[in-house]
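Lecture notes, part 5. Sequence design as translation. It can be helpful to think of inverse folding as translation between two languages: the language of shapes and the language of residues. The source text, in structure tokens, appears below.
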């Protein structure tokens, strides 16, 4: 019968409607692909493609074959989904996704507490960016995701952990006690992340709420790159309260709290069966973040 490799071959031929184009997509020579297709057809006992037509067309038997291939693939996906849900419902195997910064500085510190609460827990940790994690949840690639923005997706559930204050990080060399507003630093270089990043989205919300926009902006790839530039007296940046403990920069910089709630640590999930675990995880995160000493 057909294995995954052979299904990939005939599916590619069907999509390309040409053995020549399919051979290019499969990185093989056209004669080799023709021989492989003939061998597949000989093994299953009927012709899949009508070679007399251009573009290549399915025979009646070929149409029936692909109907069942689709059904088998749907059944396989359903089986894997049920297996993952079964694992997750028993809290024995949980696939957690998070933003890069959280996976480096927060997740490692809460894993020991998770293992203490769930001794038999097996964890899978995967990094996602803020634009892809919702699709990962909906495709059942992960069970839950830890982020720092509220979500608006009717197909997903979420647990609010806590509001994560945002601070303006200013080098001590330019900070003045009476300069505590964004306007006071409007002439400085603002190091910001790309617009798709959660922190940048929150910063844009701040700019809109404060009716302010800096004159000089430079883009950095990570929060830590921005922090390094500020520590080198090159300008200012924004930082989450939850990150202050990790960056170890209080002796070099001052931090001005931005009034308002522009960021919230949130645990997002799809499967209602893991709601209890999501709530417990959120309480562990809150306990860890709340205990940190900032200044």
């Amino acid at each position: 019968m057909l294995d995954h490799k052979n299904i990939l071959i005939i599916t590619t031929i069907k999509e390309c409607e040409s053995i020549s184009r399919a051979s290019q997509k499969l990185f093989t020579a056209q004669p080799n692909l023709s021989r492989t297709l003939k061998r597949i057809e000989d093994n299953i006992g009927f012709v899949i493609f009508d070679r007399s037509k251009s573009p290549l067309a399915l025979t009646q038997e070929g149409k029936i074959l692909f109907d069942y291939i689709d059904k088998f693939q749907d059944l396989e996906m359903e089986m894997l989904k049920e297996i993952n849900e079964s694992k997750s419902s028993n809290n024995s195997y949980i696939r957690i996704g998070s933003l890069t910064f959280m996976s480096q500085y927060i997740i490692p510190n809460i894993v020991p507490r998770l293992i203490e609460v769930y001794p038999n827990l097996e964890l899978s940790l995967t990094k996602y960016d803020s634009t892809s994690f919702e699709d990962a949840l909906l495709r059942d690639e992960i069970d839950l995701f830890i982020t720092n923005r509220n979500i608006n997706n009717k197909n997903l559930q979420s647990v609010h952990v806590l509001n994560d204050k945002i601070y303006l990080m200013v080098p001590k060399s330019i900070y003045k006690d009476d300069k505590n507003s964004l306007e006071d630093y409007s002439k400085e270089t603002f190091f910001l992340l790309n617009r798709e990043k959660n922190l940048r989205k929150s910063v844009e919300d701040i700019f809109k709420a404060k009716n302010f926009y800096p004159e000089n902006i430079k883009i950095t790839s990570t929060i830590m790159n921005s922090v390094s530039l500020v520590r080198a007296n090159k300008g200012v940046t924004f930082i989450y309260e939850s990150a202050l403990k990790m960056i170890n920069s209080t002796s070099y910089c001052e931090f001005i709290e931005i009034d308002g709630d522009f960021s919230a640590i949130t645990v997002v999930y799809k499967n209602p069966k893991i709601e209890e675990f999501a709530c417990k995880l959120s309480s562990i995160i809150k306990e860890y973040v709340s205990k940190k000493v900032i200044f």
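The translated text above is only one of many valid answers, since several sequences can fold into similar shapes. The radius of gyration is 27 Å.
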